[in-house]
Write a structure and sequence with these properties.
heterodimer; A: two-stranded antiparallel sheet; 6 helices; 2 strands; 71% helix; 2% strand; B: two-stranded antiparallel ribbon
Amino acid sequence: MTEMEGEGGRGVTFRTMEIVVSAIVLAFGATFLYSSYRLGFRWSSDGPQSGFFPFYVSLAIVVASLAILVRSIARHDAKSQEVFVEWDQFKRVLSVLIPAAVFVLGIQLIGIYVASAIYIALFMRFIGKYGWLRSVVLGIVIAAISFMMFEVWFQVPLFKGIWNPTAWTGY
Amino acid sequence: MGDLALLFHGFAVSLSPFNIGLMFLGIFLGVIIGVLPGLGAANGIAILLPLTFTMPPTSAIIMLSCIYWGALFGGAIASILFNIPGEPWSVATTFDGYPLAQKGRAGEALTASFTSSFVGAFVAVLMITFLAPLIARFALRFGPPEFFSVYLLTFCSFIGMGKGSPAKIIVSMMIGFALSAIGIDTVTGQLRLTFGFTTLMKGFDFLIAVIGLFGIGEILLSMEEGLAFRGATARINPKVVFQTWKALPRYWMTFIRSTLIGCWMGITPGGATPASFMSYGMAKRMSKDGDKFGTGVVEGVVAPETAAHAAGTSALLPMITLGIPGSPTAAVLLGGLLIWGLQPGPLLFVEKPDFVWGLIASMYLGNVAGLIVVLTLVPLFAAILRIPFSIIAPIIVVICAIGAYTVNNAMQDIWFMLGFGIVGYLFKKLDYPLAPLVLALVLGNNAENAFRQAMLDSQGSLTILWSNPLVGTITTLAFVLLFWPLISKFIGDLRAKSRRPKPA
């Protein structure tokens, strides 16, 4: 813990994040540019080729992100030196993001309903620090409500997972 | 006069018991969506959109637009009672709303805010009623070049009028266009930009992007700030309401000014958020008690709320008449129309008058219903806000996941939603605007098709964009707006130069 808090002072600056994000955007634009170049971006006998529009769109991405990249590298004022996220804040962000990613993986395997119940219960228990009883009850109640709403009333079937643990309900 | 008859017919359509029920349900859901941070109007409507596919389109749009009105009202509750803007356009409302609540005048602030929201929206609806048919009739003459030039105007005004860095606005917008181009090219039938992934064949659905960018992204941001809700209690009794109403006519000038700002910003894609800030700023500069702004004056609540609602409502004008949404939420509604097989644009007024006038009539009724609901149920909504974020957050994530899945019944969309959430978080923090991305993603295909058709007509010559006075004016206006920052700087320099020789 102490080791982590020690890093809080340094952290990633806005300048670094600006550079990283614009570089990623640049790479994205360049990939699209190449792909639409391969597709053909000129004129054929029947009008513009498929790559015409994407070509100029990705050209604009490349030029604009290059401008942002160059400017953020050159920038050294106070705002650019500010910390992008404090370590404490970043921990809170991760405490939502990682469970959310595990939740999505859970949906893939055991379906939306069971995964939601487990996700809400565990989130309340470990991040909200509620008692087990309240957490589990609320998780199950929410999952049950959504099951009734989607499967029974609106008849919009949701994803029940590869292992389909709710197969016994017959929906 | 024919239009008025159609409007009354529209009232008849929207006054069926089923539609009135949906109206109140929509408002109720909308206020909850507006109150909760992380669940905004755009992604709230995106999530609920698939549930309305089985309804008749008119009922569906009534419910969805009422969610929108509800969200516009709801944003103010969180701002005033908890100093937490539930929606970006209610940030300016916190400046004076929260100080008022701290002084124990929460009821007054809420009443003033709801009433001014109502006034702003009402004037905007009046404007839509009279302008929409005219614009639609005018736009019937539009061909592909005209439509493309209107798209060009929309996107150029984003870049020229936007507050932030133009490069970031361009990046965000072009990413939207690029994502919209992924999949099968509708003209040549060729697969493009899928990089060999079959999952990308159908392309990106903008609803997924909206749910991820605004829903998940917002949750991550709220979590970073570690929200703890500590709010003033609210109870509105009729006495306070009538006292406030008696005092409000004093601010007639603020109402007029804010409504005008709002309508203008709503039609041009400025949107409700800049409109509310601009209106607050203007009111502060022009009011007698300008220096008291920020300490809790009613006028400081009136100005941003009127403008935000006027803007939010008038954003629907270009959406129904031209098929060009003025805000991300309007873009989601437009997406809904497309899914129901209704092509928004001038022809809609000719082909589906029932639908259009039903929608316009429901705007009047929805706002009345909204005012009633929020005035009576404030304590309930305030109680919802008191539910701790560690319970709300996972529930919102679950709702977003369900919403993302129901769009296409595709599991992979939930993963895309998560990815868009991370993008939304990073972009928000680094001031890349999200609205241009969403609009470009929605309009990308239409804009590209209009461009291609125009180019086919002209054998690939760009001069078609100036081929007649109409299209020429729009295109030129687009470029003026695009380079507006440079032009205004140039004019400023000229003025400074001409002033310099004069003795000081």
